[in-house]
From TrEMBL:
One GO molecular-function entry: UDP-glucuronate 4-epimerase activity
Subcellular location: Golgi apparatus, Golgi stack membrane
Enzyme class: isomerase
Chief place of localization: Golgi
Membrane topology: Multi-pass membrane protein
Reactions catalysed, as given in the entry: UDP-alpha-D-glucuronate = UDP-alpha-D-galacturonate
Family that this chain belongs to: Belongs to the NAD(P)-dependent epimerase/dehydratase family.
Domain of life: Eukaryota
SUPFAM superfamilies named in the record: NAD(P)-binding Rossmann-fold domains (SSF51735)
Transmembrane segments: none
A GO CC annotation given for this chain: Golgi cisterna membrane
EC number: 5.1.3.6
Taxonomic source organism: Triticum urartu
Name recorded for this polypeptide: UDP-glucuronate 4-epimerase
């Protein structure tokens, strides 16, 4: 796995890679093999090394550095229901697929916000040859099987419980996902052979009460202002211990207020947009002594560049089967935009692009763990990752507003939005043909999965029920995603081969 999406469920090798290993399924926790497929991990890995081919270039996203032709790159992406697991997760996987990397994603599609938006993201990823598993990163047995089937080279861990304020309502969910879930994933990586390199999403919130600006990686992070920040700081300490003891290559990325299309609906820019358009008042917080709050808003495309740069420069893990063979790299980087913008300025930019005046309700910032400002020093990321953010807040919000307008237009036409509306006549994303449901612990779903034989073409009928995938299923625009985001099929075919998974 090269990039990680933490949420987790069932799994299979990416179908778009010509699989020499045809994992026939998972039944009651057991791998089921068929048709002469090597039954042991060693045999499967040996067979795979002989015949696995790089996947076709499918999908949309940012092009990355060229990879060695003789080494296939597999990335696992974990992504729960937060923004980075949603937008960042979707954007990173698209970029990886475009450059030919094999990608498997894991997401638990929880209800922290409307799961239909998450399902719409999944539909887009699936259309581009990314296999997304519904499950949870706390499921150690699931992760062990996933690592046993696919020889991941990298893990991009973007899953977490997000939101500073929600931690006051449901603190246990933060420890469960951001601490326990991280440890479960690290255990799976530690025991894998080969061990993958890990890139994971920390947060700018770890700087807490630090008042030095701009925030640098060398600044103190021992004064978290929220439980969310504390769990992210704990994650940095935990990953360091796994690096030191087990030789795992680990890179932590401190994201600074990520925003853009497909983002998290509870974030200020998203909720402000919806409320302004609906004529509802927006609540604008300000700090002590009437000081405006400011954030280092970072557009999603820039975050993706930082993630890809981190993956491409990650050194190898040095352990084998849980035993360290030598020192491995441990890195921490800020990924921000370096230009903090006040909340009133954010509102003014939205008013300009929406052409609607906001009804503002200005109040003092409550004591819920939020900090008054963030400001990233990205010199280290620029030097070591080649990270250069290119989108200012005005340009980024303009893109978001255009995306949101398309969603509203689609909703009014009865098509799938990702916000509760559905495509007329379509199947619920969570359900398969004949009412079966996917996911770990659900009813049996017999999937035959393979990626497109070439970009934009899937070909012919795909199952006995007559469910077909049109030749143009490869989506190249958000409009097509909106139209087809609720479509699910339970069998894909490819001329090069078929990977099959059964979940029970």
């Amino acid at each position: 796995m090269r990039r990680d999406c933490s949420a987790g469920g069932s799994f299979v090798p990416l179908a778009s890679c010509k699989p020499a290993v045809q994992a026939q399924g998972v039944r009651g926790g057991e791998l089921v093999h068929g048709g002469g497929t090597p039954a042991t991990r060693e045999e499967r890995r040996g067979a795979a090394s002989l015949s696995r081919q790089p996947p076709p270039l499918v999908g949309c996203g940012l092009a990355g550095a060229d990879k060695a032709k003789d080494e296939e790159q597999w990335t696992e992406i974990t992504g729960k229901v937060r923004y980075m697991d949603g937008d960042s997760y979707k954007a990173c996987t698209g970029a990886l697929r475009k450059r030919g990397d094999g990608v498997v994603g894991i997401d638990n599609f929880n209800a922290y916000y409307d799961p239909s938006l998450k399902k719409a993201r999944k539909a887009l990823l699936t259309s581009h040859g990314v296999f997304v598993v519904e499950g949870d990163i706390n499921d150690g047995r699931l992760l062990a099987k996933l690592f046993d089937v696919v020889p991941f080279t990298h893990v991009l861990h973007l899953a977490a419980q997000a939101g500073v304020r929600y931690a006051m309502e449901n603190p246990a969910s933060y420890v469960h996902s951001n601490v326990a879930g991280l440890v479960t994933l690290l255990e799976a990586c530690k025991n894998a052979d080969p061990q993958p390199a890990i890139v994971w999403a920390s947060s700018s919130s770890v700087y807490g009460l630090n008042d030095k600006v701009p925030f640098s990686e060398s600044h103190r992070t021992d004064q978290p202002a929220s439980l969310y920040a504390a769990t992210k700081k704990a994650g940095e300490e935990i990953t360091h211990s796994y690096n030191h003891i087990y030789g795992l290559s680990i890179t932590g990325l401190r994201f600074f207020t990520v925003y853009g299309p497909w983002g998290r609906p509870d974030m200020a820019y998203f909720s402000f947009t919806r409320n302004i358009l609906q004529g509802k008042p927006i609540t604008v917080y300000r700090g002590k002594n009437h000081v405006d709050l400011a954030r280092d808003f970072t557009y999603i495309d820039d975050i993706v560049k930082g993630c890809l740069g981190s993956l491409d420069t990650a050194g190898r893990s040095t352990g084998t089967g849980g035993k360290k063979r030598g020192p491995a790299p441990y890195r921490i980087f800020n990924l921000g935009n370096t230009s903090p913008v006040t909340v009133p300025t954010l509102v003014a930019i939205l008013e300009k692009h929406l052409r609607v005046k906001a009804r503002k309700h200005v109040v003092e910032m409550p004591g819920n763990g939020d900090v008054p400002f963030t400001h990233a020093n990205i010199s280290l990321a620029r030097q070591q990752l080649g990270y250069k953010p290119a989108t200012n807040l005005d340009a980024g919000l303009k893109k978001f507003v255009k995306w949101d307008a398309r969603c509203i237009e689609a909703r009014e036409g009865g098509r799938q939005l990702g916000f509760g509306a559905r495509v007329a006549g379509s199947t619920e994303l969570a359900a398969g043909p004949r009412g079966r449901r996917w996911g770990w612990g659900r009813n049996v779903a017999d999937w035959s999965v393979a990626g497109p034989a070439h970009a934009g073409h899937m070909g012919g009928p795909v199952n006995a029920d007559g469910v077909t995938l049109q030749d143009e299923l490869s989506m190249t625009s958000l409009e097509l995603l909106i139209q087809r985001s609720a479509e699910e099929v339970d069998e894909f075919r490819q001329h090069d081969g078929v990977a099959k998974v059964m979940v029970k």
